[in-house]
Design goal:
With 626 residues, the protein is mostly helical. 38% of the residues lie in helices and 5% in strands.
């Protein structure tokens, strides 16, 4: 099987992938326990090519594919981790994808929300199914002598890791889930309790770490390594509040960072500047910050562009160069959260009763407020250059009264990157920007959390300051576009972007660059964490600033046990001087966040499919109808 040089783990047209996916990726994962039927069987696929192709099919399931529907299975979790949090609105308009409104407003037992939940469940367990298929094939092929020991260990380790990842995704959604291994024969298994799932996850990640090499197999950066498995283990431990264990797992990983990747070095580090984290430029993809990412691929021969971030394709400004669709819009609350005080520290910490008072469009004309430069790498604001596409315009918003005045920005490629698809429905909103599932800044801040819980607040502060120092290096620059009309609008508004007629095409510039007249930026360093309580708040605040709009916020609030407090204030009682029910009319209908919302309801469809002799094998989560 040919391995593509740019995106080694995606093959939209590869026969081995398609065959493996068709055979082992069951649409109804909990359907009758029958032998899968198709044009190929395990004997036919029991070759090195078949084993590798089936493994690649397991990687491909990281993002939505056409068989799972959309958009509940997006790799970024924007529906489940952002739109349900204080980071983002569903956006767009009321009549487009109304099921996501039901998710956003916590009506999770409604038919629309149930459909989206079923998409996520089916997609995750299809990933599990594909990973287990790869494990069975690797064992069969290795026993026939067609795989070297190193390849057999590599395929097995990668598949076990992917199985753990898909189960982790299901676990942080539903908590009490069934756990499937390659030797299971009846897929109508009962749920494990949440703590039992954690044990299974850690067991798989330990196994993967022992089998995997320290560097990517075949030199292909998209493949996971033993370091990836160890880092993911620390992530699971943080989610499970196993603080001492997480500290022991993550500390040596950070100690082994940097330099060329080898058996003793992870090769991980923070990217040089924040703009290099989410990017379409080939020279910066899979940079030092990437621990685990969906390897998106555009213009690879797949005729509809389905490998080009299918799950994100709605999340571009509706107007301007894209033509659709305006979903996943940043909330006013998130935009306000980027304000800083005179020391360049989060205003939300120093002015907790007033930081969220603003309820007007925060545009480039508002220069009395100083902000963290990550605001304009995360959010599209009117009057501010938008990467190298020109000035963000009011007309880029689909329905301002519904979704607010801001646009998502991280998943949007740079025009000069050449990452845009040339095929598919609205190809301008398909690209090859890799979707970070776990990145190094996330790991550093998780380690900071563990340090706080250990009482080592100074260690935690050093980690937070390290992330903040990187944020202080670069801000959005002129990025003068090549498009004539967009260029004219930008240069007319900001003549300094074309001094002497020479265009300033720099997308990223120092935060004090004289070309910047659309914002006042500052990022300060903490000099003390005066208490453990303050340290917890500071680390969580940094996670929001650093990881905003990346599908992490809701899960952060829930695992820390503060989701009800934060989200009920966000919608109803008000936080920092503002409540969303007074900003967006639809939020007056949001359900209060109560105990049952600590876990998503298991899709009713999956409970029905689990029946044996009329009895459900899957048990619904507390508070939700069976």
């Amino acid at each position: 099987m040919r391995i593509a040089s740019k995106h080694p783990l995606l093959f939209g047209t590869a026969l081995a992938l398609v065959s493996a996916a068709a055979l082992y990726g069951c649409k109804d994962f909990l359907a009758e326990n029958a032998t899968p039927q198709g044009t190929l069987d395990q004997g036919t696929l029991s070759t090195k090519t078949g084993a590798e192709g089936t493994l690649i099919a397991a990687y491909r399931q990281l993002d939505c594919n056409r068989t799972n529907g959309a958009w509940g299975c997006a790799a970024s979790n924007w529906v489940w981790g952002s739109a349900t949090s204080d980071d983002a609105y569903k956006g767009s308009e009321a009549t487009d994808q109304p099921a996501i409104d039901e998710v956003e407003l916590y009506h999770w037992d409604s038919p629309g929300a149930q459909d989206y939940l079923d998409q996520k469940w089916a997609a995750m367990y299809e990933g599990v199914s594909r990973a287990n298929a790869a494990l069975r094939l690797a064992k069969a092929v290795a026993s026939s002598g067609q795989l070297s020991a190193s390849d057999a260990n590599g395929i097995t380790g990668e598949a076990i890791f992917l199985r753990a990842h898909y189960h982790f995704e299901a676990w942080r959604m539903w908590g009490n889930i069934p756990y499937y291994r390659e030797d299971d024969t009846d897929f109508r298994k009962p749920n494990l309790q949440s703590a039992q799932v954690v044990t299974e996850l850690l067991r798989d990640l330990d196994s993967a770490a022992k089998l995997l090499p320290a560097t990517p197999r075949n030199g292909q950066k998209g493949r996971v390594t033993s370091w990836t498995a160890k880092a993911y283990k620390g992530r699971v431990q943080v989610y499970a509040n196993q603080w001492a264990a997480a500290l022991a797992t993550l500390t040596p990983i950070v100690a082994a960072e940097g330099g060329p990747q080898s058996t003793t070095k992870t090769g991980w580090d923070l990217s040089q500047s924040y703009d290099q984290v989410w990017t379409g430029f080939k020279a910066q993809e899979n940079g030092p910050e990437t621990i685990f990412a969906y390897q998106a691929s555009a213009n690879d021969g797949e005729p509809e562009g389905y490998n080009a971030n299918f799950g994100e394709r709605l999340n571009f400004p509706h107007g301007g160069p894209w033509g659709c669709c305006g979903f996943h819009q940043p909330s006013q609350n998130l935009v306000n959260f980027f304000q800083v005080d005179a020391q360049g520290l989060p205003l939300a910490l120093s002015a907790p009763s007033s930081w969220n008072v603003r309820d007007t469009n925060f545009t480039a004309a508002d220069l009395t407020v100083t902000v963290d430069p990550r605001l304009d790498w995360t959010v599209g604001r009117d009057g501010v250059p938008f990467k190298d596409w020109g000035v963000h315009q009011p007309g880029w918003i689909r329905a301002r009264e519904w979704g607010g005045p801001y646009s998502p920005k991280k998943n949007v490629h740079e025009k000069a990157s050449g990452a845009e698809s040339t095929v598919g429905w609205v190809p301008s909103q398909l690209n090859s920007v890799n979707i970070h599932l776990f990145r190094y800044a996330d790991l550093l801040l998780m380690l900071a959390e563990a340090e706080v819980e250990a009482g080592s607040v100074n260690n935690a502060m050093a980690l937070v300051n390290r992330v903040r120092e990187r944020a202080s290096r670069k801000a959005q620059g002129c990025g003068v576009p090549t498009d004539t009309a967009a260029r004219r609008v930008l240069v007319t508004r900001y003549p300094q972007c074309a001094p002497g007629g020479t265009a300033d095409t720099r997308i990223a510039v120092p935060i004090n660059d004289p070309s910047i007249t659309w914002a006042r930026y500052a990022v300060g360093q903490y000099t003390s964490f005066p208490s453990q309580t303050y340290a917890r708040e500071a680390v969580l605040a940094e996670r929001r600033l650093e990881l905003g709009m990346e599908g992490q916020r809701f899960f952060d609030l829930r695992r820390r046990g503060i989701a009800a407090t934060v989200l009920n204030a966000y919608f109803n009682t008000g936080v920092g001087g503002g409540a969303e029910k007074n900003r967006r009319a639809q939020f007056k209908g949001a359900e209060p966040f109560i105990a049952k919302h600590n876990l998503y309801p298991i899709p009713t469809n999956q409970i029905q499919l689990s029946k044996i002799g009329g009895q459900n094998r899957l048990t619904q989560n507390p508070g939700w109808p069976q």
